[in-house]
Design brief:
The chain is an alpha/beta fold. The protein has a single domain, classed as NAD(P)-binding Rossmann-like Domain (Rossmann fold, 3-Layer(aba) Sandwich), CATH 3.40.50.720. Helices cover 43% and strands 13% of the residues. It is built from 10 helices and 7 strands. The protein has a 7-stranded parallel beta sheet, sandwiched between helices. Helix 2 links the parallel strand 1 and strand 2. Helix 2 runs parallel beside helix 3 and helix 5 packs parallel to helix 7. The radius of gyration is 18 Å and the shape is globular.
């Protein structure tokens, strides 16, 4: 979102944009895209978004806040970006806290849990978005240290965060876990061995978890973005990628806001009977088989 749009939301609420209450949409396309009269209302809920200082994470966090959720913003190294996002989220009239931690280290995750509980209380919506990435390398060339780091940032991340935050959901008999996966997990392109392995490992953990905690009315789902347009592409003027778009059935790239909208839906009561899902948000570029 642009700063002017955030300012208007803070001053007049989402109605000031001509949208329904708490409706999270892409501002760049509201003029030309018909919108269903749905209301995503997360008031009274607390969300934790790991990797909030990243390209997708900050849009997910802002969108959940625009829907009324209090939001814990996690970062590992992007402290200044996280603090800037905190100011934007606080301007939306919800509670907000910033927490630092290594999502692949048990002690760090436990410290994050204590910090979030102290600042905002128990988490209702856990968004697993953080990931480590290095330059793409072939399996035969990549160092085992780089491979393990990427793998742990998806798999250990999923295990440690759910072990820390889901027990409180079990006690309350409700909750949402949403992992951010990727279309790459199904494509398995060259030079993506560590990334694909990590995301496929995340998929396995979360599918099993969905069966283990479903009896407690906790849903566990995944959103799998394609190659989305985010702030770095807007800044560089490289939103269009014809070679990629040619293979996408919708013949265009999606937006970071498309991913955030899917997360908000899965976090809401509208998705109360949806669990164990791997949801591609990629314009049809990958289509899971039945």
């Amino acid at each position: 979102m642009t700063r002017s749009i955030l300012r208007r939301i803070a001053e007049r609420g989402l109605e000031g944009l001509g949208l329904g209450a708490r409706q999270a949409l892409d501002p760049a396309r509201t003029a030309r895209t018909p919108q269903a009269p749905l209301r995503i209302d997360l008031a009274g809920k607390t969300a934790l978004v790991t990797g909030s200082s990243g390209e997708l994470g900050r849009v997910i966090a802002r969108t959940l806040a625009a829907c009324g959720a209090d939001v814990a913003l996690h970062y590992f190294q992007g402290r200044e970006r996280a603090l800037a996002l905190e100011r934007e989220v606080a301007a939306l009239g919800v509670r907000c806290a910033v927490v630092q931690g290594d999502v692949s280290a048990a002690d760090s995750v436990r410290a994050m849990k204590r910090a979030v509980d102290a600042a905002l209380g128990p988490v209702d919506v856990l968004v697993l978005n953080a990931v480590s990435q290095y330059r793409w390398q072939g399996v035969l060339q990549q160092s085992i240290e780089d491979f393990e780091s990427q793998y742990r940032s998806s798999v250990a991340h999923s295990v440690l965060l759910t072990q820390a935050f889901v027990p409180a959901m079990v006690e309350r008999g409700r909750g949402r876990v949403i992992g951010i996966n990727t279309e790459c997990a199904m494509q398995a392109f060259e030079n993506q061995g560590a990334y694909v392995s990590g995301k496929r490992g995340m998929d396995g953990v979360l599918r099993v978890l969905a069966k283990e905690v479903g009896r407690h009315q906790i849903t566990v789902n995944q959103v799998a973005p394609g190659w989305m347009v985010s702030d770095k592409f807007r800044a560089a003027g490289t939103e269009r990628q014809p070679d990629y778009e040619r293979d996408v059935p919708l013949r265009r790239r999606g937006y970071d806001q498309d991913v955030a909208n899917a997360v908000a839906f899965l976090a809401s009561d509208l998705a109360a009977f949806i669990t164990g899902v791997y949801l591609p948000v990629c314009g049809g570029n990958v289509m899971p088989a039945i």
